[in-house]
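> Could you send the Delta-aminolevulinic acid dehydratase prediction when you get a chance?

Sure thing. Input:
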Amino acid sequence: MTDKTHLVDEITGHRRMRRNRKADWSRRLIQENHLTVDDLIWPIFLVEGTGIVEPIPAMPGVNRMSIDKAVEAAREAADLGIPALATFPNVDLALRDETGSQALVANNLINKATTAIKKAGLNIGVITDVALDPFTSHGHDGILRDGIIVNDETVDAIARAAVMQADAGADIIAPSDMMDGRIGAIRRALDSAGHQDVGIMSYATKFASAHYGPYREAISTSGLLKGDKKTYYIDPANGTEAIRDAALDVEEGADMLMVKPGLPYLDICWRIKEAFGLPVYAYQVSGEYTMVKAAAANGWIDGERVMMEQLLCFKRAGCDGILTYFAMDVARKLAKG
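Output:
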């Protein structure tokens, strides 16, 4: 018998990685991570009024919706199997002030939307954000006093707002403000109000990123923001500090942890999952979404393939799910098989 051993066999010790890649069926058989509809959380934007579906120029394919249209969208998402929505209000500018007091109005836009979605009896969760930036006249996530975001007064306000959001039917409170101590304060406030079953998805590591621009257009804060948010968001250079932030949120009672933005911080996703073992989510933020959309619109990339690849990367990095504006597109694609 002729020996057909090749030099490559000797170099590799007869271990060839391509054997498992040679056919579609074998590649599917060994695939380590999978993206399913159960991994998706769909962020939506709300406006007052009725019958409104208003395109957001900086986010092609994303709209601001009045509550009636948001309920219709929630029904479609539930029918596709998407587990949860994350709601963000675009509040009338006349209602915004220095302290974000509209956040403490029980029937404000975000709470009315939650109640309406829940009243529709849909099999979908509602995740609400208690940060004050949609409600402040200066665009910051907290109360501004003499040019400083005051931590403790902000925490008092968002803890009260969290209870109102839970009263309206929110299933999970997701505080994105990055104030110190807010997770513990919200947990105590919720429990004191009898909302022990309402979870907290902490924006555990929210970075002072340049990827948020289109989102700020969506909630009309881009022209309001005075200064930047570096005194409370995390420096993009700091990984160890991010883990310490997450650890404090775990100690204070967070049920789930989020990393925001997503793709530039896959290392943080992995480190947090390995360190704490809690459910971890990435927020594929507006800038990430828009970059894919813009490049695809110019024919520079295959937008659908890039969309699916990036979301799969979050799974590989240890994420249990992803907040993504692509959620409906992905859910439809997955439904087709």
